Amino acid sequence: MEQPSAIIKNTEDHLKIYILILNEVLGKKPIFHSYLNFCKLVGEDTMNYPDFEFWYYRFYRLYRGELDDCDQIINPVRKTIMDMPVSLMYKITENLDTVERTYLRSMNKCLKDIVDCHPPSFDVIETSTDNKSLNWKLNNKSFSCGLNDYGSCSLKILDSTIIRNECYFKKGMEYLSPVLKMPNLKVNHLTLNIMNGCTYLNDLLPIPFHAKSVSIDSFNIKKSLELLSAMNPGELESIDFSNYDIGYTATREDVLEFYETEQFKQANRVESNIYLYEIDLIKFSHLKTFKFRLNFRELVDFQMIRDMISTFENFESCELKSINNRDGFDMRTVAEDLGAEIPFGPLKTITHRYQTPKSKNHLEFKIEEEESSCLIKIVKVR
């Protein structure tokens, strides 16, 4: 192990220096004040603080009678943080928050092993990419790596900024990837906004990834389905699959592939701007709540939707939205199809209650007109 500075062994005044340190010990002042006083007497370059601390405490133990072997003072072995009892190191890491432990584990293998004894759990992890940056957020702490004005990459870690002549994706992933691949990692909500098909993102997530809720928005539905497939089915309760243009670009095969994923089949809540076909509604029978777009390209039988939803045992609420406010999707037409009473005059909202057959439950429909859209909210009332 590293020994105290060689100047203590080789200088002709080493005995004088030892005596000065011993006098500071006998003066019973706080160690840092003792070091400042020592520097005033012999100069700041004579001994650095770690070496002074080392000798100060050795003399202090000798003064208390705790050392009786002179070799322990003449040729001591310096202590490091790894000489701390494991139980004490565990206690110290226990008092750190998840983000602090995450970066502590990257410093040393032994520290990594101790940190990994605390199952890592984040409330929120957010990851986003574009053509110039990779950004991530761990709980309330933000990080980023992106191109700066000079063509190099700027890595921002907490309060520090590091400039590197490297690919910003590669450098950013050196910090983000170990976080996402920590053993036993659990996340309450994961947000993935991936707008770049860079190869460094091919293995972004380990499989299975343990998250209760996920929001996925990517450059195409194939990538979104790939990211969704990494989630642990059954553990994943909520899915937000609202890609910006998924309603326009997703093929019928893509939509059916989404419905056939175990993640969709075992979720409780799903939100997407995939267009909903009436024939697919039966696949939603296990969901407690869902939000989807209605396919405005086809006529919609709202009574059939009502009758089908009324049979869903787990159903609590849903929102169905048309983004094209044309005949068949305007508020009054929907209300008439449901058999609702429509008051005279201008309307902003129509509310209708439907008694569920062979049940004491009701379905409450709230139909609203928005700019270029019609929104239908359905809630089960017990």
Structural account:
Residues 20-60 form the Mos1 transposase HTH domain. The chain is an alpha/beta fold and 382 residues long. Among the domains are: 7-79, no CATH class; 277-382, no CATH class. The chain is 33% helix and 26% strand. The chain has helices at residues 7-10, 14-26, 31-42, 49-63, 71-74, 86-94, 98-104, 109-115, 168-180, 221-229, 246-249, 252-259, 262-265, 302-309, 331-338, and strands spanning 121-129, 133-138, 141-147, 153-157, 160-164, 186-194, 210-218, 238-241, 269-276, 289-294, 317-322, 349-355, 362-370, 373-381. A 14-stranded mixed beta sheet has the order 5-4-3-2-1-6-7-8-9-10-11-14-13-12.
Short description:
Residues 208-322 form the DUF38 domain. InterPro entries: DUF38/FTH_CAE_spp, FB224, Mos1_HTH. With 382 residues, this protein is of the alpha/beta class.
Q: What's the tally of helices?
A: 15
Give the overall shape: elongated
What is the residue-mean pLDDT, rounded to a whole number? 83
Give the biggest sheet: 14 strands, mixed
The N- to C-terminal Cα distance equals 72 Å
Strand fraction band?
Answer: 25-35%
Count of distinct strands: 14
